[in-house]
Amino acid sequence: MLLFQQSLPGLVLRMGAYRLPRLQLPTPNSQLPTPNSQLPTPNSQLPTPNSQLPLIYLDYNRTTPLAPSVLEAMQPFWMTHFMLPGQEHAQAQAVGESLEQARESVATMVGCESFEIVFTDGGTEANNLAVFGQLASPQQKGVGLGHVLISSLEHDSVIAAARQAESMGYEIETFPCEVDGVVDPERVKSMLRDNTRLVCLQLANPVLGTLQPVREVADICHNRGVRVHCDASQVFGKLPVEVTRLRVDTMSVSGHKFYGPKGSGAIYVRRGLRLSPIRFGEPREMGLRAGAENVPGCIGLGAAANLASRCSSEVADNFYEQTALFLNGLNSSLRKECVLLAEDSVRIANTLAIEMPCEASRIQKAARQLVFATAQSIEPADEMTRSLQAIGCSEAQIRRTIRISLGWTTSRDEVQRAASLLAEACDGILP
């Protein structure tokens, strides 16, 4: 079972630089996050309905709590340093310098130059800008509408943007993954056409955890003059990333996935690539956005990027140990066997998609102390359902599948208790 592989192209050990903002604002603690240190533990702070017992939060792929050091870095920009950058006075210029420091921090995490980072209001806007910005870019004008390929595993924001492009006249086609949850680059190659303009492939699937061969796909596409967008939202804070080795044209970042603020994000735009804006007004962010900058959000994203840059290798090793402990505890406690999906694939080590012996919704109701993900419906619009359908799961299998995703603060005790509670709830349902 491969949960982590350092040699996957574009995923390399890279400990990023760590800079102090020019305003001498609070910065992330120099110590790596541990279950007993600086990150909040929602597990111990949220009451369980109808119980005095604390929740055990196991849904970190959906969203993460804000790191205290990130909040601390953001606070001055709401009250005392509230000015907008770009104005002439010294205070505004100082805010602008801090914004650029945050941009450099994100660039360090991504592995690129700071001028290749554009701040957005989150991962959704970043994906929308990547799709529309490339299809409507000046470099594409005059070549006519064409063909776009997206993987069957993509996030809603990529799928919705592709559908909108389809309504404008583009032909959208979906390429499948294999039963192991990983895309075959040769399948993508066989589907490329002379008029293919863009290929979208995520780096890691949030449900299965599978890592995709983005570098191989990018090389194939670039040999045919086709651009590649990569949604990498699920990887930061879990594995080190080197975007220049992935060789993609654009890549999206979402702050709330790695202990940054909600409503913060960024897009990497390869040097020399020209995009068209999708929001209009007074131009900001190299002309790709309009409206006042969300300065606190950008500062928070930079602070979270500092944390993610400095702890990825240790976190990956810890996740490997924790998920193995969880699976061993679950299998030893259950009366009937559970199945780990995409078991033999290279995956982000914090993520487990597990087919249980009974319906996941019933387990969720019985194990109210646990927070984990299940399919909300059997419709393809549901992200979890869509990912499970992509690897050939039946409706019954989808209804029995749960997703466990661990965080930086998840402790061994919580992992062991969660496995025991999950098995107890499941066994109570089984005849």
UniProtKB/TrEMBL annotation:
Cofactor annotation: pyridoxal 5'-phosphate
A Pfam family hit: Aminotran_5
Residue ranges, annotated region (Disordered): 24-48
EC number per UniProt: 2.8.1.7
Biased composition (Polar residues): 26-48
Gene3D superfamilies per record: Aspartate Aminotransferase, domain 1, Type I PLP-dependent aspartate aminotransferase-like (Major domain)
Span of domain Aminotransferase class V: 56-417
A Gene Ontology molecular function term of the record: cysteine desulfurase activity
InterPro entries the record matches: Aminotrans_V_dom (IPR000192), Cysteine_dSase (IPR016454), PyrdxlP-dep_Trfase (IPR015424), PyrdxlP-dep_Trfase_major (IPR015421), PyrdxlP-dep_Trfase_small (IPR015422)
Superkingdom classification of source: Bacteria
Catalysis: reaction(s): (sulfur carrier)-H + L-cysteine = (sulfur carrier)-SH + L-alanine
Main EC class the enzyme belongs to: transferase
Keywords: Iron, Iron-sulfur, Metal-binding, Pyridoxal phosphate, Transferase
Keyword Iron tagged: yes
Assigned protein family: Belongs to the class-V pyridoxal-phosphate-dependent aminotransferase family. NifS/IscS subfamily.
UniProt-recorded name of the protein: Cysteine desulfurase
Organism: Novipirellula aureliae
